[in-house]
Automatic annotation (TrEMBL):
PROSITE patterns on file: RECOMBINASES_3 (PS51736)
Family designation: Belongs to the site-specific recombinase resolvase family.
Protein name per the record: Recombinase family protein
Residue stretches making up the Resolvase/invertase-type recombinase catalytic domain: 2-138
A Pfam short name: Resolvase
Source organism: Streptomyces cinereospinus
Keywords, alphabetical: DNA recombination, DNA-binding
CDD domains, alphabetized: HTH_Hin_like, SR_ResInv
Entry keyword annotation includes Hydrolase: no
């Protein structure tokens, strides 16, 4: 009977060390990881963990929303685990403990899975509203352009003299693709 961990962060910029430490402390002999949104069905780490698990094993997650952000997906995963004789253990949050798909346990689990999905939807809504507000104020997201008006003027002058794009890009310290994009 193995205890297998699953950890997930939504982006490559996030760190899963907190989850990893908790899963290791919980006795997980193997930990699978994904760096993808919980709404994303393409989570190879989760699929590998589910494939690895056998009857009598336990799937351990740091928090319910790490398993997924879609109520349907979380419930499907939990029901599948139960049908296969695999326990689901949640380390933190309101549902900390072992999941039981019976009576009040199932009801509470379903409600908490719905809250996880609601939270994801609210994050998306707030992000979209923030981007729209910034756009209305004339601000755009993303990295600042390395091509200023001065750099573009120099690049155009060098190109007019017959210098190659590769040489210009190297001299100005920008990529060829960036230079091509700005020169048209």
């Amino acid at each position: 009977m193995a205890v297998i961990g699953y950890q997930r962060v939504s982006t490559n910029a996030q760190d899963a060390q907190l989850q990893n430490d908790a899963l290791t402390a919980a006795g997980c002999s193997k930990i699978y990881e994904d760096k993808a949104s919980g709404k994303n069905a393409e989570r190879p780490g989760l699929l590998s963990a589910l494939d690895y698990l056998r009857e009598g094993d336990t799937l351990c997650v740091w928090k319910l929303d790490r398993l997924g952000r879609s109520t349907r997906d979380v419930l499907t995963i939990a029901e599948d685990l139960h049908a296969r004789g695999i326990a689901l253990r949640i380390l933190t949050g309101t549902l900390a403990g072992n999941y039981s798909p019976k009576g009040e346990g199932k009801f509470f689990f379903t409600v908490m899975a719905a809250f996880a999905e609601l939270e994801r939807d609210m994050i998306v809504e707030r992000t979209r509203a923030g981007l729209e507000a910034a756009k209305a104020q004339g601000r755009t997201g993303g990295r600042p352009s390395v091509i200023t008006e001065d750099v573009l003027t120099v690049a155009k002058a060098r190109k007019a003299k017959g210098e190659s794009i590769t040489a210009i890009a190297k001299a100005l310290g920008v990529s060829r693709a960036t230079l091509y994009r700005h020169l048209g």
